[in-house]
Write the structure tokens for this entry.
Amino acid sequence: MTDAPEPAPRWLTESEQQAWYAWRRMFPLVNAEIARDLSQDSALSEADYDVLSVLGSTEGHRTRISALAERMRWSRSRLSHQLTRMEGRGLVRREEVAGDGRGAEVVLTPSGVRAITTAAPLHVRSVRRHLIDALTPAQLATLAEVGETLRHRLGGDTP
């Protein structure tokens, strides 16, 4: 076996570097503003909101825990810890799947439904203020196209 030399790195061009730095600076700033608003407006974390919004869009506000982890692209361990915190606040509960002793579902409680129903309009207002309304329609279309391209490339075909 021969040790082939490593190929030379493909350094970023100036325009590629500008794009990369813009992403690195923009994403945490926008995300932090939206997360701050969510916490102040609704006393929910981003993780809380993510779980509540996914469950809120499911039939009967319930889904298998394994399916929720897959859809959210979270490890089962991370989801389990998050669900434990949310159960302690009465937002969700875990139930065994009828007729299947191996499976468990997570269910949105009435308090969870109220939390997401109250939080959603405030969250959308924050998303608008910090992202949507700051961009032109053409910029939004480009952002959506870039996001979808990267999501597909990275195997995130679950919406």
In short: The first helix runs from residue 14 to 42. The chain has a mean pLDDT of 93.
